Design the sequence.
């Protein structure tokens, strides 16, 4: 398609006047039938790279996405733009709703689905009856065992692609290091994929790392920041309990601010409500864990605070990248208490089963094999083994990889074969833990550096960076006394959405 025609289609289907950096070249390669890898900074509009081709290509575009909230939000935004034929297939649909979608797949152009649900044989059978013109893997770093959000089900996507007749593939990420990029290509077996790799550097974000001594010190500084800046704000925690405690504390301190909390332990409906309130400017500040933010396309977030630091730089880059998507100056502040390193190490330990857990689980599985043909459902296995969901998914993937169980949990090998597998799996766990500990050390080294924070943050991922001449980072000097970030205009009467709703109800 001629270059000028693409601009017309962009305006017609998505009402944008021009492409952002990197988008057009990716779309041109996809329209030419090529496999494409796109690494674009957070907030650069990766989703447009497949949303426009989905409208222009003849058949169906399938988008594999890791989070239900991410899929739901993107479909809602597309429908608000009068973008036709998009839907998210997810586990919250009733069987009847899902069947209705599968019966009418021909009416859709763009289908969002999780990698786990994509393994459902009924869904795959329905997809195989369609002409699939493009297969998109969003957050493609999840494919790689070196990626910061590794999901075992992502590694099975190469088989899925083959079952669908090998349509063109688009792999997208904001935080794929060169090592992760190579791993994605290897797992997908796409050596000729066309790469579009753009710097992760976001020049409009200013960085500050502040040494603090305890929770009281953090709270004091946090209140100072919220007093100084009235902009939409995300505050990141590693503890679910503290998201709630700090949110309640801030609500009491700032009566005029609409403050909420969000974490993975909340009901899905409550999480979606909080997310939509924030998107619709009905909430000003969110105290959240890393469960919040992926796919949040809110342009006016101008303050990101890390009450706790993430366990790796990739996660930090992704989280601070949610600021300043409108191009305006934004601030990323990390409150660093060296004692928090112990919390990070505990979090890492909980991501993988240890040697004792592994031995106990293999014993449970051996016993099950004598009385059953296959493993119980995942939920039952998690209760039975005492593992969390991440640990069980990892272990199940290892058992499948070594031909101990099939994809649907049927036993293949005898108990004698499993015993010698323990050492192999344990060795892999130790290797993974070594990688995670190395990434944690990189994070700590970054927080403790006296060099330019911008340079030290991005040097692991790209050659060079764009340095700000003024207010680059706390190591290069910041003018805290000035209002250096944009603020949203508040309503003059100070009413929040709760007050408005109550007034309207009383008037009826």
Sequence:
């Amino acid at each position: 398609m001629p270059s000028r025609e693409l601009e017309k289609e962009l305006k017609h289907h998505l009402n944008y006047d021009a492409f952002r950096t990197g988008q057009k070249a990716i779309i041109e390669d996809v329209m030419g039938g090529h496999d494409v890898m796109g690494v674009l900074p957070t907030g650069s509009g990766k989703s447009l790279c497949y949303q426009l081709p989905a409208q222009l290509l003849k058949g169906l575009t399938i988008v594999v996405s890791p989070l239900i909230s991410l899929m739901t939000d993107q479909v809602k935004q597309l429908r608000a733009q009068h973008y036709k034929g998009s839907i998210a297939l997810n586990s919250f649909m009733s069987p009847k709703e899902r069947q209705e979608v599968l019966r009418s797949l021909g009416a859709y152009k763009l289908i969002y689905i999780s990698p786990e649900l994509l393994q459902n044989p009924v869904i795959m059978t329905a997809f195989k009856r369609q002409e699939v013109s493009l297969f998109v893997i969003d957050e493609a770093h999840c494919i790689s065992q070196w990626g910061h959000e590794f999901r075992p089900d992502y590694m099975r996507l190469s088989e899925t692609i083959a079952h669908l007749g090998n349509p063109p593939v688009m792999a997208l990420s904001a935080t794929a290091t060169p090592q992760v990029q190579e791993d994605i290509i290897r797992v997908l077996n796409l050596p000729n994929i066309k790469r579009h790799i753009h710097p992760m550097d976001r020049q409009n974000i200013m960085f500050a790392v502040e040494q603090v001594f305890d929770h009281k010190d953090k709270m004091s500084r946090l209140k100072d920041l919220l007093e100084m800046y009235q902009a939409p704000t995300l505050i990141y925690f590693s503890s679910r309990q503290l998201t709630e405690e700090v949110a309640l504390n801030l609500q009491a301190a700032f009566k005029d601010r609409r403050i909420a909390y969000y974490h993975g332990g909340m009901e899905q409906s409550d999480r979606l409500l909080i997310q939509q309130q924030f998107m619709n400017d009905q909430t000003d500040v969110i105290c959240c864990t890393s469960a919040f933010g992926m796919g949040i396309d809110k342009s006016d977030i101008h303050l990101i605070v890390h009450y706790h630091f993430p366990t790796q730089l990739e996660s930090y880059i992704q989280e601070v990248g949610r600021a300043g998507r409108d191009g305006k100056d934004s601030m990323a502040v990390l409150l660093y208490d060296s004692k928090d390193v112990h919390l990070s190490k505990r979090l890492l330990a909980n991501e993988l089963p240890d040697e004792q857990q592994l031995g106990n689980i293999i014993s449970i599985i051996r016993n099950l094999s004598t009385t059953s043909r296959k493993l119980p459902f995942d939920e039952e296995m998690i209760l039975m083994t005492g593992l969390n969901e991440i640990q069980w998914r990892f272990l199940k993937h290892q058992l499948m990889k070594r031909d101990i169980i099939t994809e649907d949990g049927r036993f293949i090998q005898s108990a004698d074969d499993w015993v010698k597998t323990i050492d192999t799996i344990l060795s892999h766990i130790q290797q993974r833990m070594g990688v995670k500990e190395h990434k944690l050390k990189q994070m700590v080294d970054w927080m403790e550096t006296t060099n330019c924070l911008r340079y030290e943050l991005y040097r692991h991922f790209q050659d060079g960076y764009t340095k700000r001449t003024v207010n680059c980072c706390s190591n290069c000097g910041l003018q805290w006394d000035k209002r250096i970030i944009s603020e949203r205009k508040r309503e003059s009467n100070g009413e929040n959405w709760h007050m408005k709703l109550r007034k309207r109800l009383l008037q009826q």
Remarks:
- The longest strand covers residues 205-211.
- The longest helix spans residues 421-448.
